[in-house]
Design a protein that fits this description.
The structure is a single chain. It is built from eight helices and 20 strands. The protein is of the alpha+beta class. It folds into two domains: 228 residues, Rossmann fold (3-Layer(aba) Sandwich); 103 residues, OB fold (Dihydrolipoamide Acetyltransferase, E2P). The strands form four sheets. It has a six-stranded mixed β-sheet with strand order 6-7-8-3-9-10, sandwiched between helices. A five-stranded antiparallel β-sheet has the order 13-12-11-14-20. The chain starts with 10 loop residues before the first strand and ends with a strand. The structure holds adenosine-5'-triphosphate and magnesium ion. Adenosine-5'-triphosphate binds next to helix 1.
Length: 353
């Protein structure tokens, strides 16, 4: 199957589950559609099945009987990886340590029979694209982690894949480098227009890179949505707590209000549930004059975090509430404050079973 450069293939995963030979159920049957050129992030804690899902898409693993993988509508389920036109960066990069940078990048081109001269030109293009000029003749074991990451990426896109599969490509790097490469990677993916499936357990990476995010929990899909949908409208407590900080409150609902120890908070949306679990993001709560607030509490502690300050407040809800306020708000521990938020900031979650 050939695909034009710069045009990703669409991916359809149909009822793909995975039970390993030893009986481990790594993946519940999952169905997913990924559009051409889309970046889809698989996000979830260690062991939730992210790599397994990626390996099924790559052709390194067969789904359980009944599962199917389609690229641009063509059934690829039993097509081996070398005939799927996918580029892959593994969790551990999997570069050839004794080969030079250039030979690593050109490896896929060579085994596909590309002539030496064309290969050299393509390698030069990728070296420039991934910002590793000057390192072409180094061996992999003479590179830093960030440089290895770039080589792995260059090698994966060298063959002009229709689909790029990235398994936690940044986790081995320190935080500052990770942030920078994340931005670079984002620009690169947009420029290449390749369909990308990106695995991570880092929620800020998922938010920045993903057109959509698939949150996975114990081998199952907990929620699929845009970063905004996942953040503001999590379907359940697991998603709410996995993405960003969340106040989880248990309180009865009466006439469109959450009835809390510190007052009555109006809620938006589906306010018909009788007793419920609600989620409130810390930055949606505003500190106001307690005399004119629907909800009041007492500040237990304030920590200055630079770009904001985090307050822990007691007495407002059944548990301590976390508030992220602008760094200019002047408050101190022991002070009684009013809490204000728009009704839609309260997200009702289904009861837990
Ligand atoms: N070959 C295998 N045989 C048996 N069990 C396996 C095999 N490979 C993975 N598993 C199990 O399947 C589950 C999912 O593994 P997977 O590697 O997909 O998780 P992951 O989400 O990628 O985790 P991490 O973030 O740690 O990389 C785990 O419980 C794992 O131990
Ligand atoms: Mg993994």
């Amino acid at each position: 199957m050939t695909m034009a450069a710069g045009h990703g293939a669409s991916v359809r995963i149909k009822s793909c589950g995975k039970t390993f030979a030893d009986g481990t159920r790594a993946l519940e049957p999952a169905t997913l559609d990924i559009a051409r050129g889309e970046t889809l992030v698989l996000l979830g804690p260690s062991g939730c099945g992210k790599t397994t899902m990626l390996r099924i898409i790559a052709g390194l693993e067969l789904p359980d009987p009944g599962g199917r993988v389609l690229f641009d509508g063509n059934d690829m389920t039993s097509v081996p990886i070398e005939r799927r036109n996918v580029g892959m960066v593994f969790q551990s990069y999997a570069l050839f340590p004794n080969m030079s940078v250039a030979d690593n990048i050109g490896y896929g081109l060579k085994i596909r029979g590309m002539a030496q001269q064309a290969r050299a030109a393509r390698i030069a293009e990728l070296v420039a694209l991934t910002n590793i000029t000057g390192l072409e003749n180094r061996r992999i074991d003479q590179l830093s982690g960030g440089q290895r990451q770039r080589v792995a990426l260059a090698r994966a896109v060298a063959i002009r894949p229709g689909i790029l599969l990235l398994d936690e490509p940044l986790t081995a790097l320190d935080a500052a480098l990770r942030d920078r490469l994340r931005g670079e990677l984002n620009r690169l993916l947009r420029a290449l227009g390749i369909t990308t499936i990106y695995v991570t357990h880092d929620q800020s990476e998922a938010m920045e890179l993903g057109d959509r995010i698939v949150v996975m929990q114990k081998g199952a899909i907990a929620q699929i949505g845009t970063p905004r949908e996942i953040y503001f409208k999590p379907k359940n407590r697991f998603v709410a707590e996995f993405i960003g900080a969340a106040n989880i409150i248990e309180a009865p609902v009466e006439n469109g209000h959450l009835v809390l120890p510190g007052g009555r908070q109006p809620i938006g949306g589906d306010a018909n549930l009788a007793a419920t679990i609600a989620m409130i993001r810390p930055e949606t709560i505003e500190v106001v004059d307690p005399a004119r607030a629907p909800l009041t509490g007492t500040i237990d502690s304030v920590s200055f975090i630079g770009n904001r300050q985090r307050m822990i407040v007691s007495g407002a809800s059944d548990k301590l509430l976390t508030i992220d306020a602008p760094n200019t708000v002047k408050v101190q521990a022991g002070e009684r404050i009013g809490l204000s938020m728009v009704p839609d900031a309260v997200r009702l979650l289904p009861p837990e079973n």
